[in-house]
Write a structure and sequence with these properties.
- This protein is α+β, with helices and mostly antiparallel strands.
- Among the domains are: 83 residues, 2-Layer Sandwich (Alpha-Beta Plaits), CATH 3.30.70; 89 residues, no CATH class.
- The chain is built from 16 helices and 17 strands.
- Strands 9-8-10-11-15-16-7-17 form an eight-stranded mixed sheet, sandwiched between helices. A three-stranded antiparallel sheet has the order 12-13-14.
- Strand 13 and strand 14 form a beta hairpin.
- The chain starts with a strand and ends with a helix.
Length: 401
């Protein structure tokens, strides 16, 4: 983000740039004046829009924007937080730990988790202890992923499963802040940039009741691509009412869409939607510059897939059943992972180097190939078809775009 001034005596306000992650913290910080809304661009990515008539140029949105503060060198990424740039704060009090872990299969089967089930089990314990959990669910009426707050296990079940698309945060950041102010503990689960936005928004007293899990994220595709892809699937199976990007197994990933008239099922890597995602064709612009694609994590606990477990950890049992990579960055993160104590089948602590080897997103941001991305969106605008656009990309650039 970059500042936008009108007069010398006014504080800077945000304006959308390629660094904007769409975290929506700016909307929450301006909740009283309601001068900022998140508006979708042509690709469906949400960016802040400032209403000049409502804005009083207080500058809070700019000061609370993690992207702006990182770009200006005013904050630094430290284990479990973004902190003001200061030498004395560079050394964390908590030493991060790295784990490979798998859960007992009976628990995953009981609650319908389709992959490792780790985030759900932690959330379950948090709910049972009286807390609230904010996670991502799929809204089939609007055909989009969205963040929402759960207070019961039944509500929590909607968060199961990976959503390979950017979510709509609505006003959930402001809701979380109100719950924290009222004394409720809240667990937030999201991408690192979403966690950073929430943490920047809150004061120390509010943060004391906040627990966070950031996901080891490859990047987020645009919402428009998913809506168009679901429309194409609906032409085959009827209106889609259940979408699972990772059905049935950990490896291979299976994309399954249940419609009113049938079922679509295929290996995810063989679908057009996943091609665009894995080849970095349709990610948010900020994903190609992501400051969180590192082993230093902003969340209290970080979760992802422990890819290559069979080669990286000798004799790890049942690797095909799903293994989570877990990075514990704070004492809160340790408290969260300790709720798994009686539900794990196997846990193995590993070195930072081994953890880094499990996922490229712990080493570098997604790689941008501008001609491929531009061509994809030109075709998408022309055809309104993800299938046709990806086929055109493959025809011009090959399968390794």
């Amino acid at each position: 983000m970059r500042p936008k001034h009108k007069h010398h005596d006014q504080q800077p306000t945000i304006t959308a740039t390629k660094w904007c992650t769409g975290c929506s913290a700016c909307v929450a910080v301006c909740a009283k004046r309601q001068a900022i809304t998140m508006q979708p661009d042509k690709k469906g990515f949400f960016f802040p829009k400032v209403d000049a008539k409502r804005c009083n140029h207080c500058g809070k949105c700019y000061r609370k924007c993690p992207s702006a503060q990182l770009q200006q060198g005013k904050v630094q990424l430290t284990p479990g937080n973004l902190l003001p740039m200061a030498a004395e704060q560079a050394q964390p009090a908590f030493t991060p730990h790295y784990f490979a872990l798998s859960l007992k299969p009976d628990y995953k089967e009981l609650y319908g988790c389709t992959t490792t089930g780790t985030a759900f089990r932690i959330s379950y314990a948090f709910i049972k202890a009286g807390g609230l959990v904010c996670g991502c669910r799929f809204n089939y009426e609007s055909a989009e992923a969205e963040h929402a707050i759960a207070s019961t296990v039944d509500e929590l079940k909607a968060f199961c499963g990976s959503k390979y698309v950017q979510s709509n945060k609505h006003d959930v950041m402001a809701q979380i802040q109100e719950h924290l102010r009222s004394g409720r503990k809240v667990l937030f689960i999201g991408t690192p940039c979403e966690v950073a936005g929430l943490k920047q928004l809150l004061n120390e007293q509010e943060q004391a009741l906040l627990f966070t899990i950031d996901l080891i994220c490859h990047g987020v595709p645009d919402p428009q691509s998913l809506k168009l892809y679901l429309k194409e699937l609906s032409s085959q199976v009827g209106a889609v009412h259940d979408l699972n990007f990772r059905a049935e197994s950990w490896v291979p990933l299976i994309l399954k869409a249940q419609g009113s008239e049938g079922t679509f099922k295929a290996e995810s890597n063989n679908t057009h939607y996943f091609f665009a995602f894995t080849q970095n064709v349709n990610l948010r612009p900020s994903c190609y510059h992501c400051p969180y694609a590192t082993l230093t994590r902003v969340g209290d606990l970080s979760l992802g897939d422990f890819w290559g477990v069979a080669s990286l950890i000798k004799d790890f049992p049942y690797p095909e059943a799903g293994v989570s990579a877990a990075i514990v960055s704070t004492a809160k993160g340790a408290a969260l992972i300790n709720t798994l104590q009686y539900h794990t089948r196997n846990v193995c602590e590993v070195s930072a180097d081994v953890m880094r080897a499990t996922n490229i997103s712990l080493r570098q941001p997604a790689t941008l190939v501008p001609p491929v991305r531009e061509f994809y969106y030109q075709e998408l605008a022309r055809t309104q078809s993800v299938v046709a656009s990806v086929n055109a990309v493959i025809a011009r650039f090959g399968k390794q775009a």
